[in-house]
Amino acid sequence: MTSRHDATKGTAITDSLQLGRVQTARGLAVYPLTADTTGGPWYVTLSEALAGKQARVREVSEGGAVPELRFENRGDSRVLVLDGEELRGAKQNRVLNTTILVGKHSELIVPVSCTEQGRWHYDTPEFAESELVADRNVRFALKESVAMSARAGRGHRSDQGRVWDEVAMLHDRHGTQSRTGAQRDAYVHKKRDLDEVLAAFPLVDGQQGLLVLHGERVIGLDFVSIPDKYALLHDRLLRSYVFEALVSDAEVCDDVAVAKAFLERIADLQALSFKSPGLGWDLRFEGDGVLGSLLTYRGRPIHAAFFNVGGVRAGDGRGGVRAGDGRGGRPRTQRADPRTERHEPQWRIADARERARRRQRDR
After folding, report:
1. How many CA atoms lie within 13 A of 310 on its CB side?
2. 62 pLDDT higher than 60
3. Do 295 and 99 form a contact (C-beta atoms < 8 A)?
4. Shortest CA distance to 100 belongs to which of 223, 231, 282?
5. Distances from the Cα of 205 to the Cαs of 33, 305, 306, in angstroms?
6. Quick check: 347 pLDDT over 80?
7. pTM here?
């Protein structure tokens, strides 16, 4: 459902954001984000709700359906689930297609995508949290394809084939393997390396988000309205952005003008507003090298996630940056040298990897 009367400019989020002191390591520059969002709606995170047995997440039926899950909130608090947050178990691991605020004492069907292509049988009756947010490139694939689906009136559906392609490319870039093609296995194999990089980006008092540069290019930002809740999500959001730095030799660029120019681009955008599958409204922004979304509830921002499409980077142009010279519509990542041939399970991930290689060559 779309309401153009509810269209909102990007200033709905950027006017309240403040950039903190930059943190740098491994070709990354991270600006902590804070904002004045006191008095907004209260909620708990997915991890809190599952740990406290407040929430249950199951397949929609015994047979299951890949693009949907049943989310039950039995508690007295709303539950916030971010786009890209992964759930593990049941018939296959899934990630949320869009950020959702689940109402108190309610049950709804939530749109999801599979991040474990080679399994379709029950490991557990219910889902547990996977303690990760999807790799940035997987999230971008979700963000772009879900936006297209919403504009076409098809709801918050993703391009599942493209999501599988990105998961396959994640394994290829990092030389990891998974018997079932699970995204989570790449995170498990690289946990030590990821944790070493994360140590350079500690949480600061009152932090509510982060804006990340990789080399001279902004790659994205995330914002969560309640500092205490962001603190629980800080490490997993960082891992989503840090992963690509493990296979890159990019040099740090800590020019604050680049970060400010990205915020200016967001501020200038006009959103299309869609009814969220849960509470509130899902505002979608696209243009000027930016793709993003903002979940609002009762007129207050709850979660924002924005990605750089065209390669906004240090150099010339507006605000001291220039648009990238590559194809728009997808973030640029450096890919490791092709790996030597290794044993692969005989299922569809091989096809996904071939599609991913062709997509990479065409960029």
Report:
1. 14
2. yes
3. yes
4. 282
5. 10, 21, 23
6. no
7. 0.86
